[in-house]
Design goal:
This protein is an alpha+beta fold and 260 residues long. It is 42% helix and 22% strand. The strands form 2 sheets. A 5-stranded antiparallel sheet has the order 1-8-3-6-9. Strand 4 and strand 5 form a beta hairpin. Helix 5 crosses helix 8. The N and C termini lie far apart (38 Å).
């Protein structure tokens, strides 16, 4: 598995407040709010994370998220996402935390000097083109170790749902012209079997494909160097208007709204 599949970094920066509905977490996430405010909304209520706070969201949870720009400012956050394979590698290496309770729902911690130093070192390694895979994994494990020493651990790997497996596959090449037969072949099964397994999970091939592409687009849109048309192309949309329509139907606002 490539390092980019083990841990990823995302910088979010937008001048407008926005709501993103029904976000399913495919990886365990650690986020640091640099500016503005983040709200996680569920049937149980709303959890608020102000500027300078740290939020931790486990995979396989689902939320409505509101990112609120500060008055006359922006919403900014820095996020590390850890794949289940890295969580298992951490648990294998640091067995002393095997008895610790895993994060349920979400959690928070303090963005103190220790957190900021450990988090920043991991981000620097991920962004540096000359960092080796071993260094990047090591820095990512340091973040997980720091959190574990604060009593925060993510759950070990369980059998991934087929929708999650398809999301991971498509997200590697969202621009590709994926067909049901190609995806099924990648999983060494027939198209009919894949359709049946997705149906058992209450979803479908076309829905999974659309979700993977649009969620990738959401992440890319936070990169100010990319034009909306380029994001659309990278995510498999030849038509700018069709991309904007699909994005608005999914998230409730257009891609260009994030650039206002």
């Amino acid at each position: 598995m490539g390092i980019d599949e083990w841990v990823t970094f995302q910088r979010i920066s937008t001048p407008v407040s926005h709501m993103v509905r029904t976000v399913t977490m495919h990886n365990d996430m650690v986020g640091w709010v640099k500016s503005g405010q983040k709200r996680l909304i569920s049937p149980a209520g709303t959890i608020r994370f102000d500027k300078g706070s740290v939020f931790l969201i486990p995979r396989s949870t689902q939320w409505d998220m509101r990112n609120e720009a500060s008055p006359c400012g922006r919403y900014e956050a820095r996020i590390l996402a850890f794949a289940p394979s890295l969580i298992d590698a951490f648990r294998e290496r640091f067995g002393q935390f095997s008895g610790s309770a895993s994060v349920q729902g979400c959690a928070s911690t303090t963005a103190d000097d220790v957190f900021l130093s450990t988090f920043s070192h991991a981000v620097a390694a991920l962004q540096h083109p000359d960092s080796s895979k071993n260094v990047r994994v090591h820095r990512a494990l340091e973040v997980l170790l720091m959190l574990a020493e604060r009593g925060i651990v993510f759950s070990p790997l369980r059998i991934l749902a087929w929708a999650d497996r398809m999301h991971r596959l498509v997200s590697q090449r969202p621009h590709a012209r994926w067909t049901l037969d190609e995806v099924a072949s990648a999983f060494h099964m027939s198209a009919i079997t894949l359709q049946r397994r997705l149906a058992d999970e209450g979803t479908s091939f076309s829905r999974c494909l659309r979700e993977a592409r649009l969620e990738t687009a959401m992440a890319l849109l936070h990169d100010p160097t990319l034009q909306v048309s380029e994001v659309a192309s990278r995510c498999g949309y030849e038509s700018h208007s069709r991309f904007s329509s699909a994005f608005r139907n999914r998230f409730g606002f257009t891609p260009s709204d994030l650039r206002s």
